[in-house]
Amino acid sequence: MKLKYHSIPAAVLFVITTALIAYFFPREGKFRYQFHEGKPWRYELLTAPSDFPVYKTEGEVKAARDSALNAFEPYYRMDASVAAAETEKLQADAKENVVRIPPQYMQYISSSLEKIYRSGVISHEQLENMGRDDSKRIKLLENNIAQSKYAADLFTVRTAYEFIVNRTPPWLSADSLRTYNINNYLTENVVYDAEMSDKVREDMLQSLPISSGMVQAGERIVDRGEIVDNHTYNVLRSLRIVHESKSIGNRQEGIVAGAQTILVAGLLLCFWLYLHSFRPKILYSRKNTLFLLLCILTGCILTELCIRYHLFNVYILPYAIIPIVVRTFIDSRTALFAHLTVVLICSLMVPYPHEFLILQIVAGMVVTFSLRDLSERSQLIRCVFLIYLSYCLCYLGLSVYMEADLNKLNWLMLLYFGINFILLMFTYILVYMLERTFGYVSSITLIELSNINKPLLKKLSEEAPGTFQHSMQVSILASDATEKIGGNASLVRTGALYHDIGKMANPAFFTENQTNVNPHDQITFEQSAQIIIGHVAEGVKFAEKYSLPQAIVDFIRTHHGRGKTKYFYTMFHNKYPDKEINEEMFTYPGPNPFSKETSVLMMADSVEAASRSLKTHREEDIRELVEKIIDAQLADGLHKDTPLTFRDVEDVKNIFIDKLKIMYHTRISYPEQSSSK
Predict the structure, then answer these.
(1) CATH code, domain with 487
(2) DSSP letter string over 324-350?
(3) How many domains would you assign to the chain?
(4) Same domain for 122 and 153?
(5) Is residue 465 a part of any domain in this protein?
(6) Between 581 and 338, the higher pLDDT residue
(7) Which among 367, 476, 43 is positioned nearest to 226, based on CA atoms?
(8) How many CA atoms are closer than 13 Å to the CA of 8, on its beta-carbon side?
(9) Are residues 418 and 495 located together in one domain of the fold?
(10) For the residues of 531-587, what is the DSSP string, one character each?
(11) Counting CB atoms within 10 angstroms of each CB, which of 28, 233, 460, 585 has the fewest?
């Protein structure tokens, strides 16, 4: 399904693109230095601009937190009123003879309960939770005073009961003790204080130091050529953290976003100026403008998301797809300029921007050179191989130049380039999808469609051979003339081959397909005119049935424009001079040609058809015919909507004359050998 376009000004599309790119742009302040542990420092001497802490690594911070959590003692609260209440309950039951406990047993039970409740009684579930949390010690709160205590010193109701029974003095009977229902006076008096525990734990973690030292202002950090060791790496990493935090802290985020928007707008303005100065037709075509801006927007947003969320290495992104598809549908210079716009914007976000720019610019140049004359899909495959090779060679050369040591090369980069290569291979499919979406016709598609073994052309050659030959001759005339005036020769060549396919519906009604019988002799002039005119609508039906691109359908619709079937119109006028003529019955539905290509095809079609009626093919006769036909079309206003100049028209006429002279050149007669006497 093709994309529908609305009359949105090009400037609005550029503003929308700028806003979207700026919206997704990373907001943190960019640190100007790039560094890796174990790599040489590439810049000049660096000293500390101000005092700043050396932050611990994530691993060090995690280790410190884990150590603190292991030493943390959770808080439990003891309810002193439970011990007093249970002791009073025991004494009340004994006094009221609920239980009859001898004095010596009462004394032992009371003293045991006091000792147990002083140590603390906790539920079995909470004691198991302590074991799962590896809590060997706890903080026990009593009257808001905390004291450390071993978890093993706490009782549960069961262990408290066993403690009383198992420690029965020798002068008392354990069996008698079990009869006094001691369980009735045992209950938990220690509970977990989640609020206090969480607060103390959080305060403890917050108080952990996140730095391992300080760097003083003016202190030397690293100099050019020195290897960035672990300590230096941590210092540089800390400096970057401080820089990025200050860049946001000292300036509002809106100011940063505004600066980024200005940068993006400036680069897109340069692209707009290029189109305005050198490619105005592209700029004022909403389809082309939208296509180019979508290419730029997609490349930039993918880079921004990759950088912001650390998805993968940025060199995996196939930036070269942008110049490939733009070159396929538009031209090489626009493709290279669009590519430069994308990589310049992306260089503001990526690490090692100079390295990124060199690699991507070289890749864009490779695309431009390797696809200079795009005529086969195999060229896309060759182009992708050349891009991969250029990435590898440029990276190796740049790395050796910067590092001066092959052992320090990051060979993983070659893997990233390999993934990039695989993604670029899908360009073949992407070109087809973009053709269907934007209604483009690539040079490759035109060449494939111009193959005379295509089903529709083969059918034309079989059912209307005269029309097929006519179309071949028209394609030769039109393509040469279009190339002369700077048009798309491939497009007009293909359009010429298909422009008369509608004649297959009634091939015998067209003179080039007739033998000795002319079916027009049996019908009226109006009917004849309608059959001739109908081949345009029939051609559109065939084109839609065989899914021909819209650009080819345009040639079918416009190759007669709003012209008349002059033969039948004149015949009717001559036979019925007093009868009013219905002009529409003899007029093609149009529209008139609207481009150089469609205009040249109309001229070539009429000239080639008329040239067949010439009795002699002298240069004077051919020139007179060409001048007469094209001047008549101009006088009828059939070419008024096209961008042809007077110079273009003269060039077209001269090409037609030269080509027709060659087509109809006469051969010398070979003499017959006289018989020997």
Answers:
(1) 1.10.3210
(2) HHHHHHS-HHHHHHHHHHHHHHHHTTS
(3) 3
(4) yes
(5) yes
(6) 338
(7) 43
(8) 14
(9) no
(10) HHHHHHHHHHHHHHHTT--HHHHHHHHHSSTT-B-HHHHHHHHHH-TTSPP-GGGGB
(11) 28
Dump pLDDT digits (tens) for 481-507.
999 999 999 999 999 999 999 999 999
Please name every residue paired with 46 in a beta bridge, in sequence order, or none if there are none.
222
Classify 221 as helix, strand or coil: strand
46 is a domain residue = no
The helix (H) or strand (E) run that includes residue 662 is helix 646-663
Instruction: Return the percent helix, strand and coil in the chain, to nearest 5.
Output: 65, 5, 30
Tell me which residue of 534, 533, 446 sits closest to 498, measured CA to CA.
Answer: 446
Closest CA to 116 of 161, 166, 81, 170: 161
Q: Are residues 521 and 635 in the same domain?
A: yes
Transcribe 393-424 into DSSP letters.
HHHHHHHHHHH--GGG--THHHHHHHHHHHHH
Per the model's pLDDT, the better-predicted residue between 97 and 479 turns out to be 479
Helix (H, G, I), strand (E, B) or coil at 593: coil
Helix (H, G, I), strand (E, B) or coil at 74: coil
φ, ψ for residue 40, nearest 5 deg: -70, 150
Closest-CA residue to 191 (of 77, 36, 38): 77
End-of-domain residue from the set 377, 403, 438: 438
Residue 377 sits in the same domain as residue 339: yes
C-alpha 351/C-alpha 30 separation (Å) is: 10
Q: Is 220 helix (H, G, I), strand (E, B) or coil?
A: strand
Tokens of 244: 């990025």
Q: Where are the alpha helices (DSSP H) in 348-464?
A: 353-370, 378-403, 412-424, 427-438, 443-449, 455-463
Give dist(CA 568, CA 582) in Å, integer: 12
Q: Look up residue 40 and give its DSSP letter.
A: B
> Are 432 and 491 contained in the same domain?
no
Instruction: Report d(CA 668, CA 230) in Å as an integer.
Output: 91
191: DSSP letter: E
Provide the 10 A C-beta neighbour count for residue 210: 12
Q: Domain range for residue 183?
A: 68-205
Instruction: Tell whether 53 is covered by a domain.
Output: no
Give the pLDDT confidence score for residue 624 in this predicted structure: 93
pLDDT in tens, 125-135: 888 887 766 66
Q: For the residues 354-361, what does the mean pLDDT come to?
A: 94
Instruction: For residue 195, count other CB atoms closer than 10 A to its CB.
Output: 10
SS3 category, 2: coil
Is 127 inside any structural domain? yes
Residue identified by tokens 């095809």 is 601
Structure-block tokens of residue 241: 């953290």
Q: Could you give the C-alpha distances from 516 to 42, 101, 508, 521, 528, in angstroms and in order? A: 87, 140, 10, 12, 17
Same domain? For 342 and 483 the reply is: no
Looking at the structure, tell me whether residues 265 and 368 fall in a common domain.
yes
User: Cα–Cα distance between 156 and 114 in angstroms, integer?
Assistant: 15
Please state the separation of Cα 677 from the chain's center in Å: 88
CA 157/CA 521 separation, integer angstroms: 120
The predicted structure's pLDDT at residue 281: 86
Are the C-beta atoms of 157 and 125 separated by less than 8 Å? Answer: no
In eight-state DSSP terms, residue 179 is: T
Q: Which residues contact 629 (CB under 8 A, 6 or more apart)?
A: 603, 606, 607, 610
Same domain, 424 and 468: no
CA–CA separation, 417 vs 411, rounded Å?
Answer: 10
Last residue of a domain, one of 172, 205, 238: 205
